[in-house]
Design brief:
mainly alpha; globular
């Protein structure tokens, strides 16, 4: 009986989740930038804050999407729009909390 050897040796095989993490970061950054562009005003957050805004917005948008539509929420244009809407919601809540603290 002949057996095949694996093409990947020594742990050099790439994990499946690596591209997913990069895609999340890119989508999060895009969602954060677009949300800050859509909601006018001054926000003292840099690139990392914008990235975190987009990532949290993606989670919020995905949660809202799951509530409204049953099924798998994959990376698609509707998912990007949901991420942007979630980031806008998170940004508005952030501003309300920060404004309330300064008054």
């Amino acid at each position: 009986m002949v057996t095949r050897r694996s093409a990947h040796r020594g742990g050099t095989r790439k994990k499946e989740g690596d591209l997913g993490i990069i895609a999340w970061l890119i989508i999060g950054l895009i969602a954060g930038v677009v949300a800050r562009w859509l909601v006018p005003g001054q926000d003292p957050m840099g690139l990392l804050g914008t990235l975190l805004l987009g990532l949290v917005g993606s989670v919020v948008g995905g949660f809202i999407g799951d509530l409204l539509v049953s099924g798998d929420q994959d990376l698609n244009p509707a998912g990007l729009i949901g991420s942007i809407l979630g980031a806008v919601i998170v940004l508005l809540v952030y501003r309300a909390v920060v404004q309330r603290r300064t008054i």
